[in-house]
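I hope you will forgive my troubling you with a question about protein structure. I should value your view on which stretches of the chain appear to form regular backbone elements. Here, with my thanks, is the record as I have it:
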Amino acid sequence: MKGWIKLAVFVAAVTALNAISALTAKAVSVPFEQVGRLEAGDSTLNDGSLYDEYTFTGEAGQTVAITLESTEFDPYLTLRDAVGNEVASSDDIETESGNYNSFILLRLPADGVYRIWANSYSSTAQGSYRLTVRDGTLYPSPLLSEAAIAQVERNQLLELGTRQYRGGQLQGALQSWNEALALYQTSGDRRGEANTLGNLGLVYDAIGQYQRAITAHQRSLAIERELGNRQGEAISLGSLGLVYGSIGQYRRAIELHQQSLAIKRDIGDRQGEAASLGNLGIAYSSIGEYQRAIELHQQSLVINREVGDRRGEASALGNLGLAHESLGQPQQAINFFLQSLDIAREGGDRQGQAASLSGLGNAYESLGQYQQAIEQHQQALDLDRAIGDRQGQAVSLNNLGLVYLNINQFASAAALLSESIETLEVLRRDLSDAQLIAIADTQSQAYTNLESALLAQNKIDEALVITERGRAQAFALQLAIYQNERSDLLTSYPSLEEIRRIAAQQNATLVEYAVESGHTLRIWVVSPSGDIQFRAVDLSNADISANLPTDLNLSSPRDGAVPTPDDLIADLRSIAVVARQEQPEALRDLHKILIEPIADLLPPDPNDNVVFIPQGSLFLVPFPALRDETGTYLIEKHTISTAPSIQVLGLAGEMGNGLRHELSQMEVGDALVIGNPTMPTVAIADENGLQDIQLSPLPGAEREAKAIGDLLNSAPLIGNEATEAQVKAQLPDARLIHLATHGLLEYGDPQALAVRDFPGAIALAPGDGEDGLLTASEILEMELQANLAVLSACDTGRGRLTGDGVVGLSRALITAGVPSVVVSLWAVPDAPTADLMSEFYRQLSQGQTKAQALRQAMLLTLEKNPNPRDWAAFTLIGAAE
């Protein structure tokens, strides 16, 4: 059982410059002017450069201007707090005018002692200098032109963002860099604009806003190419490669890193070459090519040693350790981690030490040397606590918990893992929705491990509370905010009593899935009476692989293992959309894994609702189409709906209060029905840039909208009437929403920066200043009162799979206030969909619940169109009533 370790630390560990030797600092009073000299015997930094240190006492809000001038060397100026953390730094004042002196203009952040380091950009420089500290409000300065002052402001915003980014203040970095970007663009400073866009790409990647990250790096790349800056071009290509690695597009990442590597070799950037080789190695590790990764990390190691880059050397050694560990070679891994640890200790890099110790702990655990593993992880934890690295503390606690789990000390494991989760949940406070979604991906393993520790003690109910606690928390928080009931959901999670209350309130059997390390499927079943049952499926023994269709392009399981649910549904859409009558073997295999173990716990009455709460790629399963050994579809036995979590299900059910009413009582204008709008043009990115393509019309959707409009006593908006502007105007007042048009799975806004990142859009007619694409981000900004939204379009139920659930159109609508959403899991066929939707509303008008109406519509469509692709794509998410 492998832990959740700091794999990324060896990619680009960020460490402040630490003095190897230090002399007594000279205390000064502001304002002051000091003539000094860098010479042998002065303090030195890690790169060997000399520096003198001066201290002064400042007050929060005080503005200071610090200038370091020299005619004998290129000055480098750093301001630090009392304990050595960097507050500001400066290289050149105004390179365009040849002014290579250094200048800091800063409002001090706190009361206390500040340390000034008078340093040189060159590691070998010596010579005299003049250091001046003045009242920063006394401008204009005789030293600086107005243009230089403006450049200082831009550059220091850029540097402030860098410090915030390195300190984990990601929202602060985002704000600083966006402000800097605006100033660089206004001044026409293209180099500064490119640098800032690159930095924005880094922070967007860190908070999981990958489309924005890609857009920022692409814009930076275009400017660097325009300027002919080959080094900048190489950096942008490498940064793009890292983002594509973050979203699992490893082949694309490899292509970009190779392009970056070629440029760095061409321009003779040896240090950059080593970094690109390391990034390539990480990408190859991600696709399981560990031997190739080792070759690349070895090349990176050789270059780092040649150029004397000790931090790069430590990074390469750490990556070699990780690759050998992945190959099942823990002893070799230990050798590399020990070397990396020595370098980190030599340089005073405590974060790097903690990463090396974590790697050592995991390697010793692989060897069964559990006491040594505990010692290494404990040392890592002590370092994480010493430097205030909360994320690192959570990792180390998790790793320690895993060791105790593996030696069957389950109570100790549960205590450590609980502390790890508590530490993680503190980190959630004051984060944006996008950040909460991003960290859900990285933190999900901690909840799984605690589930294991609890289940090993037969604490089934407590384990359900933990698995529920670990999913859809960002989603639940957004819903609570909509209902003005935040009640600090960040620290209040659903209890066992709350889970039982929701099952009773929904009058539904709740089925919650969790997958442990791809080996065990865990299933909890909560009945409306509150009874909780648990079943576990050992996937390694499941006989599910014999009859898999050869055209599903399923990912190959490693070492000949039996396919897991992830393997089975890696390309699940093929089950329903290939041009064949049926795919019964694949659907039966999924039924055998997901349904058979709990079939005796499901209600015998087909009208009773069953709510499936999936995890990960299980969100893509078409539960109605799963078939048992007799060929019976699950929808023939049960009324089915889904939810991202039990807590979200409960909140969605509460949103519907006071909005329900019979369809027969709907008045003109209550329903908003859209069908076959005049289609917009979308921008599609390819190797030649963005290409404009107009979407094709949908005649069947028009017929569907007209038929449903008659049923709902509402005239549908068709063609040019269905403009995005008109739909936006009517959406807030609509009691029911039906959109029969194209759905775009990945579309956001490829031209925009820092505006949209939630994937998904609905195609509408352009005009009146709108582009005709109603995006998930735009829906999130609305307040809707509809009791039901039906997205009768392709792929509307899909989106970005995260630890917080599916991020896309369905999430946006529920968050905006709609308790029940009907969406599709694949590209639905036109004519059968029209029939299914018309029948769905007929059933609703006869008093059926939403879930029952969808079931009946599926059954009747199944009679005419037996292929699951024609009737099984739609799923009801949220409240079933």
User: Anything to note?
Assistant: The CA atoms of residues 441 and 803 lie 4 Å apart. The chain has a mean pLDDT of 80. The first strand starts at residue 26 and ends at 27. The chain has 28 helices and 28 strands.
